[in-house]
Amino acid sequence: MKFISRNQINLGFVLIILSGLMLGLTIINWTLLFFSGIFIVAYFILDKNKLRCPHCKGFENLERLMYAKNHVHYCRHCGERLVIR
User: What is the C-alpha to C-alpha distance for residues 53 and 28, in angstroms, rounded to an integer?
Assistant: First the structure.
């Protein structure tokens, strides 16, 4: 059975939080903008490869995947149930 890992969802959430934090801290030191860019690129790569519907490879946003960790949720594109393990 195809599934999306909880660890990958959590990693995506952490990458978004870190990029926002680094973006906010650029007020203090502008070189932190570089790290923010690295976190955003890492999230896009993770999203492109792992955080997709395993059946149709359709896009599911991070908010819906966080909700699907504890609830039954279906893909917006193909209608199949998203299994989160």
Answer: 39
| Domain range enclosing 30 | 6-70
Q: Give CA angle at 65 (45, 74), nearest 5°.
A: 120
Tokens linked to 33? 């903008």
Instruction: Inform me whether the pLDDT recorded for 74 exceeds 70.
Output: yes
In a domain, 1, yes or no: no
Q: What is the pLDDT of residues 33-50, one digit of tens each?
A: 999 999 999 999 999 999
Query: 15 to each of 56, 74, 76, 83, how far by Cα in Å?
Result: 25, 24, 24, 22
Number of domains in the chain: 1
